[in-house]
Structures are given as C-alpha cells and as structure tokens.
C-alpha cells in the first residue's frame, strides 16, 4: 500500500517537471511577474511579505556584507550569518600566529569577547524607487547625468541624514532606480569554525560538487542607543533589526521549493558574441598571470605556517576567479556559448528586419558594439596585463605605494608631517603584517617577466631608467633589477622607513626610491589605460543600450530580469540533483560520511579537525541529524540562479525560513554569468543544520542558538 502511494506521488512530481527557474528578479516586480509561479512551486508568502514599500518585510533581514557579499539577520540582537569565505579576510586580519582564528576557529560566547573589525560595514536596503521616467525626461533635455542624479536625489530627499542614496542603471541604461542604504560600521566577529571546516576542500573543491564545506561565519552589528550607525564604541548596543529570519531544523528534500535573496554582483547575459570573445581573451591573460603568482605563494605557504596565514587571503582572492575563468573557458567550449550567442543575434536581426521602425532603432547596434569592442581590445588587454602583474608586486605596490597613498592623503588633510607619517606607517604596518620578503622577491622577478613577455611592446619603454644602471627594461636582467630594488628601497623595513621619515628631505627620498618609482610608473600606466578603457565604454553605451532595449522588445510579454549589478534580487526554484555527464547523476545532498572519505592528513585542504572526526565517528549529531536517514547532512543543491556577491545569501523555504546558505556554483555551468543552463546550473548551499551543529556541538557555542528563532 505504502509503495503504491509513494509511486503515485512520484508520478505526480514527474507530471510537473521542475520549471526552468532562471532569473535574478527585481523585488518591486515580484507581484506582477513572479508571485503566481512562485506560489505554484510552493512559496507560501505573498509578494508584500517579501518586499513592501510601506511595511517591514523579509527584505529587511537581508544585508550587503563588506561590500561584496550577502548576509542575513538571524536574531533580534543584531546577529548575522554569512559565508566563511565572506568573513575570510576579516578573520585573517584579526589572526596572528599566537591567536590564529583562521586555523583554530573562534567563538565569542559573551558579547565582551566579540572582536571589532575596523573597516567592515553592513548595509540595509532602505528605499528602491523606479525613476526611469524622470531620468528619460531629463535626458531628452540634454542634461548631464550627474545633474540629473542631483536633481532626483534632491526631489526625493532623505529619511535620515545618514541615508546613502544613489541612482543605479539597469538593463544597460534602459531602466533606473533610486536606491538607498543604511550603512552600519561597528560590526564584530562573533564566531567562525576553523578553516578546516569553513574552507574544507580548499581550492580543489572550490566551484565543484560534491561538497563538504561548512562555509559560514557570524558577526554582530552594533549601533548607537537610537539604532543609528556609529563608529565603534564600547557604548554601542546590538542593533535591533526590523526583521530576522527564523531558522528551520526541518531539512530539505528533493523538489522542495527554495528561494534565495541577496546581492548578485554582475552577470553579462545581454552581451554579443564579439564581447564574449573579448572577455575570454582578457581572462586568458588573468589566468596565466595568476597561475604564475599562485605557484610561488603556494610553495612558500606550504613550507611555513606563518606564511600560510599571511598569504591565505591573497591566495584565495587570486585563485577563486582564476579557477572560475578556467572553468568558464571549458564551459564556453563544451556548451558552445559563442555560437549560441551568434545564433541568437541572427534570430534577433531577423526579427529586426521585419519592421522598418525596428531597423531604425536596433539595426546597427550589434555592428557598432563589435566595432567598439575591437577598437578597445588593445587597451583593455594592456590594462589587464599591467593590473595582473605589476600591481601584484608587493614591495613597490603594497608597501611603498600603499604607504605613500596614506601619507599623501593625511598630509593634504592635516598639513602635518607627523600626522602624515603616522598614517603612512599605519598602512605600512598593516601590509607588513602579511608580508614575506623572500616570497615577494620571487614574485617580483616572475611578475616583471610576465609583464615584459605579455605587455604591448610600445609600453615597455615607460619602465626604462627606473634605477641606476638599468636603462632598457626590454633587455635588462630582471633578477639583478629586483635585487637592486630590495637592496636600495627604504620600504624593506620599518627601521629604514622611520629613519628616512626623520629627515627634512623625506619627500625627495620617497620620489627617488626605486621601488616607489616603479610603483608610480605602474600606477600611471594603469591609470592612463583605465581612463582610455572608460572612454571606449562610454562610446559603446548607446549601442549596448539599443541592443538590450531591442532584446527586451523582442521578448516583450515574457517576465524578464536585468543583469546582476549588486542590487538586491530574489531567485526561486527547487532542491534538485543534476547530471554532470552522460550516465552520471549527482545526488542533491552530501553527508558527513563524505568528510571522512575525503580526509587526508597530508593534504592541507583535506584535514579533518580531531573533534569533528570524533563527533562524526560517534554519530553524535544531536537534533541536527536528518530524520529520514539519521545522517548529518552537510551541503545541498538547488537550481537557484545566483552569482558571486550572492555568497552568504539565505536559502529559504516557502515560509521564508532559513534552510541553508548559498556559497558556490558548480563547475559544469561556469558560463552561468553569460547564459543560464537549466539542466546543469546549480547553487551549492551549506545545510543550516550542519551550521548549527558546528556552532553547538563542534564550537561549544550553543548559547548563541538561544537568540535564534528555531522552527522544528
Ligand atoms: N567559489 C566561491 C564563490 O566565489 C568561493 C568559495 C571560497 N572557497 C574556496 N575554497 N576558495 O562564491
């Protein structure tokens, strides 16, 4: 009997195959475009409960974290959760060989133990207003954009003097919104698992499934007594957010409804084939430069735990998108992305040709984009080479240029040499904490070599005569030049720098310092190239706008969403497995069994902390075990449409309860920023039950769960 019932259910789910849930939807349009489909798929919230202009709604629980990630409020007392890789640089910054929170994890069970994170900010979305008509009307009167913006912001005014407003373009300048945020700047680290949990699998597993990573960390927002943003102060109190998410202990099953809200950073789904080819070419440069630099970093990191801590964040930042670009290259080929873009353009042009009015508006757009892209190609190649090589030399850029920047800025502001020196040294110390000279010497020789081999030969003479005896960059001995830099520069140690600062002639010394001279030249070159690139971008705007407008008209009547631009979006879909290739199906979840399968004490990426191993072996999962199989589920998959920036986003059930955190995309669909692949593209999420297990059982910080609203 039971069996028949089960197969009837199965038949029912097969009769309603999972919809192709592509889309990073705009919140104000949910009501008109999405909510009916969402309800049919299992969402039990109204559009108004998710996003409301007049009342607090789910969106008030979702925040921008550290200008690049998403986080969500999970208590009435300012507690938020995001990914471990989103908190990574802050955790690394707070860590020292003596207090290595990155390696060992950290839990503040009392408020007084929480660690302030200078510079870390969290932003709440305050207002979202469609101002397209106003921008258009002003454009027709030929008003420059900055004045249009000024006028519109003045018209709408501010609810708080600390409200941060901006006008943001969508659909390549076809739609504009006024968006405002409230930014909090006293944000403290509450807890993180050890990197062996938060980054388990390292770069080997990054962008891949099956996954076993506990990718989460927790922070608390503080405000002044009125709830307004304030600089760090011991007097500040935990922020009381308008909304926080309830946390579900129920777990997920295949085909369950799942939605993600957050801040996808950027996608390119309206690009032409020529633009895509150009993007690939630039990525090739980036890949090559990063492979070279990462090799040098990795070797030194493996040899010395101090270097491992110092370079952890630099390495991860480099390798994350290097690997993404490599995957994208494979997917471009395998999924025939460029030809599909061409076919789409041809179909578009057929549609255009049907009507003279369309020809008038859109007929030349694709051709103009191609022309402009080709005209810009050399400049953008040159910029990428300079940026990926010269900019990553540390003695010149990080130490000397970083110092000089802070010094000059403070000098301008205060006109005091002492204050300037103080500011400069502060920047220097911060950079020096994560600096290893032997590694940098190798890096510098290698990156200068990369630059010389790959840069436009016309630009090489700009690096001539930067040091005595080294006249022609194109032919000089780069090892000798590097040795010279390290021997002569005042930036190799704080003592040398301090001593130079004592002299009246300091500015003279600075501008003749060989490392600073190289940095200044690198900066000037990159700045010039960047400005040229921006001019090409400006020149291409009209054509891009027209092509996007044409695509919208072509697809009129169908729900549509603009490219990601780090504004809040919602994506919905289901918990789903996928088939990476013929004959193979990937399950939609992983369990702690896989952690032990992957364990390798000889590989720093696959070390399992002793306590975690013990808990797993004893099956001591408590209430976090899955009721169906008794196992500890670690990660799961959905077909939610996300991209970088969504990291840390809440994955929610049909009631808006937190079931997981989105943290990655899958290897087989690395071209997803350009084209959504319904059969292949998955969002990789950490199961919230594993997160709670790590806080409670592994971290011994179960008291934090008392703040949360748990749903059983
Ligand atoms: N690929 C993830 C993203 O960009 C980051 C994962 C971080 N983990 C790592 N092993 N690098 O969102």
Structural summary, described in words:
By secondary structure, this protein is an alpha+beta fold. Among the domains are: 126-184, no CATH class; 273-538, no CATH class. 47% of the residues lie in helices and 15% in strands. The strands form 4 sheets. Strands 2, 3, 4, 5, 6, 7, 8, 9, 10, 11 and 12 form an 11-stranded antiparallel beta sheet that branches. An 8-stranded antiparallel beta sheet has the order 1-15-14-20-21-22-19-18. α11 packs antiparallel against α12 and α15 (365-388) runs antiparallel to α22 (514-554). Bound molecules: arginine. Residues 85, 199, 202-203, 206-207, 316, 320, 644, 647, 663-664 line the site of arginine (ARG).
Question: Outline of this structure?
Answer:
About 45% of the residues lie in helices and about 15% in strands. It has 25 helices and 23 strands.
Number of helices: 25
Helix content, binned percent: 40-55%
Mean pLDDT: 95
Query: What would you call the structural class?
Result: alpha+beta
Principal-axis shape: globular
Distance between the termini: 29 Å
